[in-house]
Amino acid sequence: MPKSNIQSAKTIEEAVKLALAELDAKREEVTVNVLEEPSRGFLGLIGSKDAKVEVIADKKSDYILNNLIVELLEAMNIKGDIKIEEENNNLKLEIINLDSKDEGILIGKRGSTLDAIQYYLTISLNKYVKGYKKVLLNISNYREKREETLKELAKKLANSVERNRRPIKLEPMNAYERKIIHSELQSDQRVKTFSEGEEPNRRLVISLK
Questions:
Q1: Residue 75's CB: how many other CB atoms inside 10 A?
Q2: What predicted TM-score, i.e. pTM, was given to this entire model?
Q3: What burial letters (b/e) apply to 174-204, b meaning 16+ CB within 10 Å?
Q4: Which is it for strands 90-96 and 134-139: parallel, antiparallel or unpaired?
Q5: Which residues, in sequence order, are bridge partners of residue 153?
Q6: 190 and 179 Cβ atoms separated by less than 8 Å
Q7: pLDDT over 90 percentage in the chain
Q8: Mean pLDDT estimate for the chain
C-alpha cells in the first residue's frame, strides 16, 4: 500500500502540515482525505473537535522522481533535459543536453558523484512509492562508455596476468563495475576473478587459474 499518515489538529491545514512532516513529503506529492471536519463546539469551547486527515503519498513514481531531480539540478544551478522510463521495478533516468562542465560535475571521478546521486534518488523516491523501485541514473551515455572502457581494461589486464604470471589487484570499484569485469573474463580460460575487502574499498583481483 502507498505510505500514509493520519494527523489531528485545530484546522485541516495544520493537520496536513503535520502529516507532510511525518512523511517528509510535499503537498503536490500526496492525496489528502479529510476524515473529520473541525468544529468549534458550544461557545467555541465545549464539545469542540479537531480536524482529522489522512495524507497518502501515492503519486506516480516518474512524477515524484522528476520533481526530485529537478529540485536537485536547480540547487546545483545545472540545466539539462530529463528523460524517465519505467521498466519493471527500475526507473531509468537520463539527463542529456548538459554543458560539458556540468557533465563532469554530475559524473564525478570515475562516476562517484553519479553513483551518489543515484543512491540519493533511490532512497528519496522510496519514501513515497508502493513497493521498492530502483533508480538507474545515466548522464550523456556515461554508463555505456564506462562499460566499454572496463571491458577493454579487463582484456588488457588478463593478458598482463598471463604474461607476468602474477595476480593484479584493481583499485576499489562499486559492485556494478566489478560485475562488468567479472562477466567479461568469466569465459577466459587463463584467469579467474574474485573480490576482496569491504565496501566501499572492495576491489577486484585477477589471477591465473
A1: 8
A2: 0.67
A3: eeebbebbbebbeebeebbbebeeeeeeeeb
A4: parallel
A5: none
A6: no
A7: 65
A8: 90
